[in-house]
Amino acid sequence: MTLQTAGIHHITAFARNPQENVDFYAGILGLRLVKKTINFDAPDVYHLYFGNESGSPGTIITFFPWPDSRKGRIGGGQVGVTTYVVPQGSLAFWENRLESHGVSVTKVSRFSEQYLQFTDNEGLRLELVEREEGPESTWLFDGITAAKAIKGFGGAILFSTNPMKTMDALQNLLGLEKVAEDVAYARYRAKGDIGNVIDVPMAAMGRGIDGAGTVHHIAWRASDFEQHTEWRSSVQDYGYRPTDIIDRQYFNALYFREAGGILFEIATDPPGFAHDESAETLGEKLMLPEWFEASRSQIEANLLPIQVRVLEGKQG
């Protein structure tokens, strides 16, 4: 094994109401809406990207918010819980902020770390954990200071229909290191400082159903385009059948489904989200690839309007 991913590049999930999606991830969690575009395969659906100030790899959660989407069911073959990392000493702030917006939280412990678990407005399972690793976010919103703001992903919990196969792929294909195990979970760590801690429940899970409130895929980082080509060969050599490399405008992508049922993507760090608009204006305009520009008026007319806004907390 020669290739090692630095960790998670992005996670992509399904939602229904686009404004409620923006309200939760930008309005409550304080992430920056770094890109407002469309699903290139279904241009009547937004593709929204939320991350840190620049949408750095390891910070990006993306959504396909489709009002007619069915409700999904979280289960095997999916990311079960998406983990965000926050600065040390900030969990109490987040517990208060979430509860002030009517979001119920549960405190849990795993591998001697304390987590706040909650769900978004669609039922997607999320958690926050404090860690020293990773740079602080410089995107400040609604009074969330750098000392409190979400840095990016801490990692994820992968729900697998075949945990042994999934864990083998993490270690022997993606290059993560197994660092801990207990009766419930095995823990793997990538070489990066965010999006780097992956937990896998030891028990196999029944297959989930895609739909609003579930994750579609998890993407792993490739450092550049040359390494991305190497990753494709490595995936083939491991015995999986990756797609061709696809230009997603902000990164190149390839996809394969690992033996535990989870759709994996490998995505390049470059070129990033300031590729087609300035860093200062990220997320303000609907950005379309050039082959859709001639249909801009029709596309915009079919999309519900959205805005990033400061939300009032729950009263009383």
Automatic annotation (TrEMBL):
Keywords of this entry: Dioxygenase, Oxidoreductase
Record-annotated VOC domain positions: 7-131, 152-269
Record GO terms (molecular function): dioxygenase activity
Protein name per Swiss-Prot or TrEMBL: Ring-cleaving dioxygenase
Organismal lineage: Bacteria, Bacillati, Bacillota, Bacilli, Bacillales
